[in-house]
Amino acid sequence: MAVTEEKLNEEKKSLSFVEQFVEEDLAAGKNGGRIQTRFPPEPNGYLHIGHAKAICMDFGVAEKYNGVCNLRFDDTNPSKENNEYVENILHDISWLGFKWGNIYYASDYFERLWEFAVWMIKQGKAYVDEQTSEQIATPTTPGTASPYRDRPVEESLALFEQMNTPGAVEGSMVLRAKLDMANANMHFRDPIIYRIIQTPHHRTGTKWHTYPMYDFAHGQSDYFEGVTHSICTLEFEDQRAFYNWALERIIPLLRTPQYEEALKVIRAMADGEDNRAMAFVKAAFESRAKLGGSLPEEAVARLMQAWENGLPETIKDETVTQFFATLLCFPENFTPLMQAALRRTAETPSTPQPAL
Asked: Exposed, middle or buried by CB within 10 Å (0-12, 13-18, 19+), for 317?
């Protein structure tokens, strides 16, 4: 017995601290035993030895615990990015002997990240700052609050819209999260979350003129894709605090009364209490261009491929059941689709179903 315990202790000691966390999560049954990591390079240069270390950790953990590691290009700065780096990164990961599950881009989520930023402004958690970068910078000591920190919400909303126009001047305005200017962690001192960049994006062209900062897009992208273990090297340790803050506070911003009411309507359709379920299915199918690249959205996209030869006729159809179950399990992933589909469905009158 003592020999067995000694062997177990030796095996535990041989685990990295990351693997220990993963094994504790598996033992606790978190995420249904699912392991999903990601390697999130910025396509702004060639990979170096530090990237190789991160690749081995991200892909290695997924491989060891029968999970999946996806590749996501955090393409939030078009002034430094291009497809040459994308192709070289793909080649180098393959050369190292690893295989990714899916390929994603932060630019897949620009619409939703923009919506998050607008919600933050409306909630008083973000504001447009017109100070220079030198005035904003507080590298070593707690900073002084911006004179624009308490500007009216409507003013910040209008300026944020202005930031995303072809005439916006780079460096003239930024959007900052309203956190804590006296925080010991400099990444908490009202970090910049959007800035103006007029360089065309290698995927989205000239659609956008203001782009999310890496630290703002990173956590939300992990959330959209269903990442269970977001592994970062230690130089990003200070940024993790803002990563957690964003996930804990921004995602719940979706839970507005209107949002909850929309979910209530969709649940009623799924339960057969609202007879517009099939009208909603049809509307969602017609609005499928709103689907993004997250795993839940990809699952719904596959369901809808089966509908291209003819929509299901009853709510009891297995694909319809799976469709509603996925929407209601991951509602934040489907906000654009649900909004578009509900607008179309609103034209169909509702008749409450009789009690069975």
From this structure: middle
The average pLDDT across 108-125 equals 89
Which is nearest to 79 in space by CA: 186, 209, 192, 169?
209
Angle 103-105-108 from CA coordinates, rounded to 5°: 120
Q: Which of 144, 74, 66, 150 is nearest to 107 (CA)?
A: 74
Q: How far, in whole angstroms, is CA 260 from its chain's centroid?
A: 20
Query: Which residues, including other chains, have CB under 8 Å from residue 160's CB and lie 6 or more apart?
Result: 117, 118, 121, 128, 175, 194, 210
Q: Pairing state of beta strands 174-177 and 126-129? A: antiparallel
Rg (CA), the chain: 23
- As beta bridge partners, residue 205 has 201
Summarised one tens digit per residue, pLDDT across range 186-201 is 888 899 999 999 999 9
Q: Can you give the pTM of this predicted structure?
A: 0.69
CA–CA distance, 127 with 211 (Å, rounded to integer):
15
Question: Quick one: 174 exposed, middle or buried, by C-beta within 10 A (0-12, 13-18, 19+)?
Answer: buried
DSSP label of 26: H
Residues 237-244 have a mean pLDDT of: 77
